[in-house]
Amino acid sequence: MRGVTRARRALCAAVVAVAATACGGGSGGSVPGVASSSWGDPQNPLEPANTNEVQGGKVLDMVFRGLKRYNAKTGKAEDMLADRIDTSDSQNFTVTLKDGWTFSNGERVTSHSFVDAWNYGASLKNNQKNAYFFGYIDGYDKVHPDSGAQSADTLSGLKAVDDRTFTVKLNQKFSTFPDTLGYAAFAPLPRAFFDNHSAWLKKPVGNGPYTIDSYVRGSQMSLRKWDGYPGPDKARNDGIDLKVYTDNNTAYTDLMAGNLDLVDDVPASQLKNVKSDLGDRYINTPAGIIQTLAFPYYDKAWNGPDTVKVRQGLSMAINRPQITDTIFQKTRTPATDWTSPVLGADGGYKEGLCGDSCMYDPGQAKKLVQEAGGLPGGQVKISYNADTGSHREWVDAVCNSINNALGNDKACVGNPIGTFADFRNQITQSKMSGPFRAGWQMDYPLIQNFLQPLYYTNASSNDGKWSNPDFDKLVDQANAETDQARAVSLFQQAEGVIRDNMAAIPLWYQNGSAGYSARISNVALNQFSVPVYNEIKVG
Questions:
Q1: Gyration radius of the chain over CA positions
Q2: Inter-residue contact 205 to 105 (CB < 8 Å)
Q3: For residues 218 and 213, what is the distance between their CA atoms, to the nearest angstrom?
Q4: Would you state the pLDDT for residue 388?
C-alpha cells in the first residue's frame, strides 16, 4: 500500500456532516465508550478499489469485511466471509460464502456483492487506483485495456452461480491468489453503492463492525459500533473518533495532555522520552513496512545507462545504522533487501540480498558517482511531504550523509512538499524530477506484494515507472508456481534484478509504534502497523 506516511490536511471542509471538532484534532474532551485516535485525511473517497494509502485503509478495515482477513498477530490469511475457496489447478477457483452476513443497511451480502464490486473496480471507466489487483482475472484485458476504450463491462472470469457461490477464472496460474483476498480492494459492495453512488460516497455503507457516523475533512471522522454486525470480531468499544492532525508532534502533545487516547505513529522527536512518558503504554513492534527512495524513470536524467551507478553510489553513501539509531531510536532497522523481516525466511525475506550496495561505503559511493559522470543536474533533491516533522529529520540526515560521502555540501538537499495529498498527487501525475520518499506497507503478507505492485511494468504502485522484462518474466513464473519454496526462490531471483539495477534504494524496515492513554486498554498493532481498533477497551 503506497503512502505509508500519514496523510494530513489543515483545511476544514464538510464532506459528510459537520462534527464539533477543531482542525488539527486537539479539541479535547471524550465520548463515553468511544476511543479517540490520531489520523490523517485519505487521499480519495473511501471506495475499496480506489483506496491504496494507509489512512483510508484504516477506515476500510473497520467498515468492511472480505473473503479473508489477516490474523493481527501472525498475518496469516484466514477465512472471514469465505466458507471455502476450492481449486484443483490454481487457475479456476470456486468461492462459497458463509450464510447470514449483511451490510449495515440490512442488505444481504451475496456472491453478487463481490462480483459486482470486482467488476466495478476493474473497469477502466471507473478509474480505480486498485484496478490492477483484478488483473489476473480472465477478461481484464477487455475491461481495462492498456490503451483505447474498454470492449467489455464485466470480467469474463467472474460468474455468480447462486447467492452463496461464485467462480473465478484467472488468466494464468496463481497459487496464492486466495491469500490476496483479504485486501480491501476485494471487499463486497451493497447495491446502494451502485444505485446512488454520490450518496454512498458521502456516507459509505459496509459490512464491518463499525459504521461511519460523520466526517469533516481536515477535522474528524466518527465511527460507531454496529450492534447488528454478524462477524466473530465484534467491536469491544462503542466507537472510534479519528482526529486529523497536521503534525504528529501535536498529536503526541494532546495524548500527554489527556485530549487524545491513541497515537499510532509516535514522532521521531519524541522517541527519546516516550518510554519514560508512557511506560507500558508504548508499543514498538515489527511491521510489514519498508521505506525506500524511488526514482522518476520517466525523466531521462534518471533513466540513462550510467544512472545505475549513480543510484548504487547514493545507496552506499547513506549511513543507515547511524540514522536508524540516532533519529529513530532503533524503531527502524537498516534494510538489506526490498521486503520485510516479518515475512520470515520461508516467506521470502532474505537478509543481505542487497549486498554491498546497501552497505555504507563513502569511498566507493564517490567513485561510482564520478564514474557515472556525476549527479544528474549536479544535485539530488529528495522530495517528501512536509506535513509531519519526522520526514524532514531523516531526509536531512540522508542528505548530510550523502554530502559527506561525496565531499560536497550541496550534493543533496530536501525538497519539502506541503501536504501528503499534494505530494501523492504530484507523484501519481509523474511530476517528480528526482528521488522521492516512498513507503510501502504490505497489503497482504506475501513476498509478491513487496515486489509486483511496485516494480512490475505498469503496476498499480509503480510510481517511478521502472520497467524490466527480466523482472516481469520471473514474477510471472513465480506466481504460476504451486510449490511455495520454488515460488519464493523465483521471487528472490526477481528481487536480484531490482538489486542489480538499484530500481529503488532500500532505506530501513519500519516498526509499528504507538502510545495510548490510561483511559483505554487492550491496545495492539497488527503486522500492518495499524491499531486493532475493534479490540480496544475503553474505561
A1: 23
A2: yes
A3: 16
A4: 64
DSSP state of 232: S
DSSP string, 344-369: HHHHT--TTTTGGGGS--HHHHHHHH
* pLDDT greater at residue 459 or residue 143: 143
Are 401 and 317 spatial neighbours (Cβ–Cβ below 8 Å)?
A: yes
What is the distance, to the nearest Å, from the Cα of residue 427 to the centroid of all Cα atoms in its chain?
15
- The mean pLDDT value for 53-57 works out to 89
C-alpha 344, offset from chain centre: 19
Largest CA distance in the chain: 68
C-alpha cell at 239: 466507537
Q: Using an 8 Å Cβ cutoff, are 283 and 535 in contact? A: no
Mean pLDDT calculated for residue range 273-302: 95
Q: What are 80-131's pLDDT values in tens digits?
A: 999 999 999 889 999 999 999 999 999 999 999 999 999 999 999 999 999 9
Render pLDDT for 377-402 as a digit per residue (tens, 0 to 9). Answer: 999 999 999 886 579 999 999 999 99
Distances (CA, A) of 363 to 188, 277, 322, 352, 501: 54, 42, 17, 20, 20
Can you read off the three cell numbers belonging to residue 442?
A: 504490505
- CA-nearest of 178, 157, 141, 175 to 477 is 175
User: Whose CA is closest to 16, among 195, 206, 221?
Assistant: 221
Q: Which residue pairs from 300-308 have beta carbons closer than 8 angstroms and sit at least 24 positions apart in sequence?
A: 301/376, 301/377, 301/433, 302/376, 302/434, 306/371, 306/372, 306/373, 307/372, 307/376, 308/372, 308/501, 308/502
pLDDT score of 389: 56
Residue with cell 537478509: 351
Q: Hey, CA dihedral for 334, 340, 346, 352, is it positive or negative?
A: negative
- Average pLDDT, stretch 450-476? 94
- The DSSP code for 7 is P
The residues pairing with 244 across neighbouring beta strands, listed in sequence order, are 39
Contact (Cβ atoms closer than 8 angstroms) between residue 138 and residue 170: yes
Distance CA(464)–CA(427), nearest Å, equals 8
C-alpha to C-alpha distance for 199 and 214, rounded to whole angstroms:
13
Contact 205, 193 (CB under 8 A): yes
- Is the predicted pLDDT of residue 21 greater than 70, yes or no? no
254: which 3 cell numbers? 494532546
Strand partners, 510: 332
In whole angstroms, what is the distance from residue 118 CA to residue 95 CA? 14
**Rounded Cα distance, 187 and 68, in Å:** 9
The CB-side HSE value for 318 (13 A sphere, CA atoms) comes to 28
Cα of first residue to Cα of last residue in the chain, in angstroms, is 33
Contact 144, 129 (CB under 8 A): no
Contact status, residue 182 vs residue 80, Cβ threshold 8 Å: yes
**Residue type for 415, please?**
N
Residue 148 confidence class, pLDDT cut points 50, 70, 90: very high
